[in-house]
Here is the input.
Amino acid sequence: MKIYSYNDRANICGTQIRILRKQKKLSQEELAARLQVAGVDLDQKAISRIECEKRFLADFELREIARILQISMDELAGR
Here is the structure.
């Protein structure tokens, strides 16, 4: 399966993730650690690439990020 980017973006929620993470006063390392505890294997570098909209997100990754940031997946996607 080929994955396509949209307007040179790999995801549509990276900017919102960065804003919410900073509002919660979490570093990228802390977010990555919480994700790893939840069973999602993302490191700080992956979080950085997500926030820069350079990395695609799997649905289970998005779900856990939304849970940690205490926001719905729809809100992360800008709906």
